[in-house]
TrEMBL record:
UniProt keyword Kinase, yes or no: no
Subcellular location: Cell membrane
Family membership noted in the UniProt record: Belongs to the glycosyltransferase 87 family.
Cross-referenced InterPro entries: GT87 (IPR018584), UCP010361 (IPR016570)
Membrane topology: Multi-pass membrane protein
Annotated keywords: Cell membrane, Membrane, Transferase, Transmembrane, Transmembrane helix
Natural source organism: Saccharomonospora glauca K62
Coiled-coil portions: none
GO cellular component terms attached to this protein's record: plasma membrane
Statement: the UniProt record of this protein carries the keyword Membrane: yes
GO molecular function: hexosyltransferase activity
Protein name stated in the entry: Putative integral membrane protein
Signal peptide region: none
Amino acid sequence: MSSDSHGLSSSPTPDTASLDATQREIPSWSDPLARAATQPLGGPLGAHAVVGRHWFWTPLRVCLLLAVLALTAGWFGKAACIQQYVTDDGHVELDWRSGRQYVAMCYSDIVPLYTAEQLDKPDSFPYATSWVENAGTEYEQVRYMEYPVLSGLFQWVNAKLTHAWSDAAQAGWLPGALPVAAYFNITAFFLSAAWLVTVWAVARTARRRVWDAAVAAVSPLVVVHAFTNFDALATAAAATGLLAWSRRRPVLAGVLLGVGAAAKLYPLFFLGPLLVLCLRAGRMRAWGKAAGAAALTWSAINLPFFLFLREGWSEFFRLNTQRDMDPDSLYNVVSYFTGWQGFDGPLAPGEAPTVLNTVSGALFLTLCAGIAYVGLTAPGRPRVAQLCFLVVAAFLLTNKVWSPQYSLWLVPLAVLALPHWRLLLGWMVVDALVWAPRMFYYLGTANKGLPEGWFLGTVIVRDLVVIVLCVVVLRQIYRPSRDPVRAAGVDDPTGGVLDGAEDSFVLPSWRRIGRRAEREDHTLARRNSMSAS
């Protein structure tokens, strides 16, 4: 068995379809949580069990079924917020009385945005339709759609379908409903499809560890946040982009990342880790194709709006620049518990928090530089998913905004980067549970809600758990024998052209750590060679 400079097999990771059943990872054998979960069903898979021969229930289809069940639970969790009631004068209204959206913990941005973004008006169009907020006051402001282009168009298309549904209901062809309730359900249907695509892409990318996609499928974060906002669109594009890269199709990967960036900007962050790893492996041509395709795709989607609806198109960038720190950011935690008002203090209408923006951007770039250093100095080349997870986690930790649904960004990356089921589900439970104190903090102490300090305490716990995940990823980068993926003798299932590639550019590293990791790699290589022989 030949070995590359990492002490791992130099042959590319085989496709799932080409794997014998005995070559697939069996979670009930290798993962303590999966082993315990099988006890009510008879225990771990038997050594002589027939695997991979069922005519229908493949691991991928089981994972998709689990995702459907989780999404169904997520819909029921939000259903309380689309209930309606009849007013004294006979009008049908959405029942958000007495803070129902917070007490029932069913709040979703989809519901208020239907009217707030003027989507309820048949003749509206994103980035062309404007409205005035706080008219007649010092805070008066002309507003437009505040989302990136694809997210805005997604909302507009769903609104058009809602109007068509309402027309058909009035004609007696379909059951009637409050338009905003129909809009939520239509949106939830397409977001569910997007998350199913995410799970499918994770399963296909994981290859021999296909069952890891079950963690993404049943994630508590999906149950709580799949329908909180529109982020499933971006996760689907990002996950399929990584899948395309893993199949050595950098142009398609770039196109998908560009599409994802037109919905949420974070898929573009993947180009940073890919740049570092391609530089290390001497695969810059593949990175250039992916980066060029991503830039062209994003530009093609945005260019018409930039040319003809520039003021509305720039609303997303303007609001993100002028936005102050959110309650769930680390900056607000520091400000609350220390009383320090160094992050710009009270802002005038339309004034950007310059200090906060500078600090946030500088911290993120600093962490990115550190991650690049890790990528270029680690004794073995890190896996693509590992660096992508670290970059996105760094952005969330240093950003002035961590909206609760942003945690969905980490789910597919965490599953691919750190396939320890117990650790991942523990983090997901902690992150999902932050939703409860958040809702009761928004309810307000005057309405028997929680004080801000209680909510911020749970934010600190969530951030600490994410930092722990990052530390474990870094530990496995420097000690590949502890990486469940590489411990099986493969290199990087997500790597594509990087999978099994030799190093061509490496920076000097800490000698002590390097020698220790190299000894472990040599031990792992000898063990794999003995197993193969």
